[in-house]
Amino acid sequence: MEKTLERWLDWPPVWTLAGVAMIAFLGWIGLPWGFGIYGPGLALACLVLGVWLMVMAVWQMRKARTTINPRGEPTALMTDGVFAISRNPIYLGDSFVLLAASFWFDVILGLGIVVAFMLVVTERFIRFEEERLGDTFGDEAAAWFLRTRRWL
């Protein structure tokens, strides 16, 4: 049971929600520095971009009939569309959602949470996903890794 709970909690959307909760808490505290009048507009832009990246990535993966589960076995190597922009458009979208929360809650320290999220996701998920893609798709994956950046 404990292993199941730990596995459920160690999931990218949970990390994203935890980051948003931390940013909201910092916003509630009301730190003296922020983004001022630019915050809401930047928040909206980041939210739209983040959701768009995630929706497009999921749509492409569903269309190719491959898994969106970070622990699943890929059946197709996604290299076009949003996957030509970033090897991890869903995680990039999550990062933009965290940026949106930082701007919305006017929390400049939220930028550190975004960086921490990116580091955690890279270590906990991306490295294993890329290893699995390399094992499954070989030279084709290696070529994609060289021409497409992990984040941007």
What is the compact description of this entry?
With 152 residues, this protein is an all-alpha fold. The chain has helices at residues 2-9, 12-29, 39-63, 89-104, 110-147. The protein has one domain.
Key terms for this structure?
69% helix, mainly alpha, 5 helices, 152 residues, 0% strand
Mind explaining what this structure looks like?
With 152 residues, the chain is an all-alpha fold. The chain is elongated. The termini are far apart.
Task: Itemize the secondary structure elements and their pairings.
Elements lengths: L1 H8 L2 H18 L9 H25 L25 H16 L5 H38 L5
Structural class: mainly alpha
Number of E strands: 0
What gyration radius follows from the Cα positions, in whole Å?
A: 17 Å
Assess the beta-strand content as a share of residues. Answer: under 5%
The gross shape turns out to be: elongated
Reported for the largest beta sheet, the result is: none
Query: Count of helical segments?
Result: 5
